[in-house]
Amino acid sequence: MADYAVQARKSAGGGLTRFLYNTFIRNLSAKIAATPMMATVLVVFVGCTLWTVWYSFTNSRLLPTGEFVGFDQYRRLFATSRWNTSVNNLVIYGSFSLVFTLVFGFILAVLMDQKIRFESAFRTIMLYPFALSFIVTGLVWQWIMNPTLGLQGTMRNMGWANFTFDWLNNPRMVLYALLIAGLWQGVGFVMVLMLAGLRSVDDEIWKAARVDGIPTWRTYVSIVLPMMRGVFVTAVVLVGSGIVRLYDLVVAMTDGGPGISSEVPAKYVYNYMFGAGNIAQGLAASTMMLITVLIIIVPWAYLEFGGKGRRS
Amino acid sequence: MTTTATVSSSAQTEATDVKSRVDPRGPRPKPFFTPRKIIIYSILFFACLYFLFPLYVMIVTSFKTMPEIRWGNIFAPPIEWTGEAWTKAWTSACTGLTCQGLSPGFWNSVKITVPSTIVSIFIAAINGYALINWRFKGSEIFFSILIFGSFIPYQVMLYPLVMLTREMGIFGSLWAVILIHTIFGMPILTLLFRNYFAALPVELFKAARVDGAGFWRIFFEIMLPMSLPIFVVALILQITGIWNDFLFGVVFAGTQNYPMTVQLNNIVNSAQGSPEYNVNMAATILTGLVPLIVYFVSGRLFVRGIAAGAVKG
């Protein structure tokens, strides 16, 4: 791709004119056109991030004017039970969500890849929740899991007097309630990604495996799965950075409850910044979120783009 | 769902017959109802039940009356179909502050989505074009940071952006939300357009340059007319993404400009008095309707759009 631009550059004009043209006019119009992008990068992605990290070391409360206090905010953060619960919840929700999304996504993709009929109908049904917002997702499942009138009440009215499905009111199960809703929204998308990955596997591989008498399931596990490493890595990065941001779903479905048993870091940040008027505490928490994302992204970026040079 | 996993592995174990796997171009000689097929279809069928169940419950609940809901059967279709809940959700449901229903939220969402979509796509298209055809020193670095920045959690940049928009005097207005959506839509859209323009034949660009066309003229007269497909993908991506946004709406829009998602959440979660589940579900469907229509109308393109847009998260 880069070559095209170089060719284009070479083909434009000649001699001094070209030199002047290249140095001023061409650069100028492109730079003017790219000003919004450069401003976004410098001011928002670099500037705002650095600002947040910097002010997380202050004692700002209602306004970001505080003085430097070192790691005090972080010490306080990890001494707050609500934050620790939030992190714990995110780890539990995140690991289950990641594993189940990938496993179910892959299994469904394999089933969809068996030359079935009505494939597009199945895909439409599995993917439509992904078009809906987390607010909608959370509210629907909140209603389904309503203890008196939802699934539990219905089953009890139908005769199963001991049927229990009160996860929204059960501090130990509420995370799994969120998980059911989260999977409902996201599995279809991972399925589509995986299906695209399966379809990109060469037919020759299947033929070779068949000639060698390898059973289908074995071909999937030992040959196709390793070949889909790239798709899996992409899915892990996408699902993973989505999990760290988990916010809307919790707000809509449980609002952190019962008690603080389904609080998540993104909600902690929001509440401290805009509710509790303790900005630096919120900034410290958001810096921890940033670090988490970096831990996921940097190894991936290194694997994906390091060594081989930049790829688009 | 655990049963799904176990059953499907047994489905593959039983799959001793691999012929159909191997030769996709041949005729389909086998009978349709092999045990293997039956297992595959039944698993997919049960998966679909899980995916369709909430939609069914939403629709059924929204057409019931409250007394009927209190009987406690979420499966049962309404005995008496009534649209009252829908009217109430649209016109008079209470959000905790006002009782005007969802319609103000709907129009706010329209007022946010339309300009945000247009501005963000236009800027991203120019970015992609400049990055491919008019590279300047440092342009690739900016692009790399832009892509990397799309992974930074929004919460990290939220407070500085609040201060920034406050300084600009637009905090708490539609302008602030539009600006924020344009900023956070930029990475993925720029990537989309950049890759699309990179795949166009460069000869077109060269010929135009030789003929003396400049930056804007090439963009408007050559690049734009050729990039309709990617515009559609970007459009789908932005409409659904911005419509579904909650965080930016609640932070930047200001109370009177709350988008539909925020108002929906307020109606359901902070309303006073006994909850009216039929109204809640009607309101939920109404909020999901726009992205659902986009989804069903666009079909395959939506898949392409979100596959590209997933980076946005």
TrEMBL record, chain B:
Pfam families: BPD_transp_1. It is found in: Cell membrane. Residues 16-26 have a biased composition (Basic and acidic residues). PROSITE patterns: ABC_TM1. Signal peptide: none annotated. InterPro entries: MetI-like, MetI-like_sf. GO terms for cellular component: plasma membrane. It comes from the Bacteria. Residues 1-27 are annotated as: Disordered. It is a multi-pass membrane protein. Residues 106-298 form the ABC transmembrane type-1 domain. Keywords: Membrane, Transmembrane, Transmembrane helix, Transport. The chain crosses the membrane at residues 38-59, 112-132, 141-162, 174-197, 218-243, 281-303. Residues 1-15 have a biased composition (Low complexity). CDD domains: TM_PBP2 (cd06261). GO terms for biological process: transmembrane transport. Belongs to the binding-protein-dependent transport system permease family. This is Sugar ABC transporter permease. It comes from Devosia geojensis.
